[in-house]
Amino acid sequence: MTRIGVLALQGDVAEHVRMLGECGADAVPVRRPEELLTVDALVIPGGESTTISKLAVEFEVFEPIRKRVAEGMPAYGSCAGMIMLAERVLDGRDDQRAFGGVDMTVRRNAFGRQVDSFETDLRIAGVDGDPLHAVFIRAPWVESVGESVEVLSRVTGGRADGRIVAVRQGNVLATAFHPELTDDLRVHRLFADMVRAAAAG
Ligand code: GLN
């Protein structure tokens, strides 16, 4: 069975572990380099990207994660996790670093101060059935993507109409919203399927 780690430095760790478990995956928190070695894939939770970046360096997992993602380890990031998987970050703190993995530019806290949090229904490529109810909390959006990036979802309506909020490049998936804060397992299932497919070669 493939094992999926959830980066457990800060943020929605327990929620991701629970949802991956409900999808039938073996999900474990990862905080140390030795723990990273035991997993086939990694989820980077929502939380605060500046804190996750700082703690990843302190816990000496920053370089190992960056390297494994670059080598093709499946990864999924929600919100702050999306920022961590971006090649380029706008409105970040000067000292914040990202693992990279998706050829995209994300803008931190993009939806603006007035709209700290909001919820909307989204169509997501690869997610069948009804639109997914998406929860955004001080979320980034994707400002631009390179040619190898698949855009999976865009916001429709309102000030952010057309903004990209879900992407995939190879084995890396990222969403600006938090499926882990809802009961909808479909995004986690999509990722668990990506992990199984990658393991099967
Ligand atoms: N604004 C946060 C950041 O920069 C992300 C918020 C979230 O993950 N809910 O990391």
Task: Describe the structure using short key phrases.
Rossmann fold, alpha/beta, 7-stranded mixed sheet, binds glutamine, 30% strand, 6 helices, 3-stranded mixed sheet, 201 residues
Description:
This protein has helices spanning 13-22, 33-36, 49-58, 62-70, 80-84, 186-200; strands at 3-7, 26-30, 41-44, 75-78, 86-90, 102-107, 117-122, 132-137, 141-145, 150-154, 164-169, 172-175. It is of the alpha/beta class and 201 residues long. It has a single domain, classed as Rossmann fold. A 7-stranded mixed β-sheet has the order 2-1-3-4-12-11-10. It has a 3-stranded mixed β-sheet with strand order 5-6-9. A two-stranded antiparallel ribbon has the order 7-8. The two termini are 14 Å apart. 48% of the residues are buried. The mean pLDDT is 96. Bound molecules: glutamine. Glutamine binds next to α5.
Question: What's this, in brief?
Answer:
This protein has one domain (3-200): Rossmann fold, CATH 3.40.50.880. 26% of the residues lie in helices and 30% in strands. It is built from 6 helices and 12 strands.
Helices and strands in order, then pairings?
Blueprint: E1 3-7, H1 13-22, E2 26-30, H2 33-36, E3 41-44, H3 49-58, H4 62-70, E4 75-78, H5 80-84, E5 86-90, E6 102-107, E7 117-122, E8 132-137, E9 141-145, E10 150-154, E11 164-169, E12 172-175, H6 186-200
The structure holds glutamine (GLN).
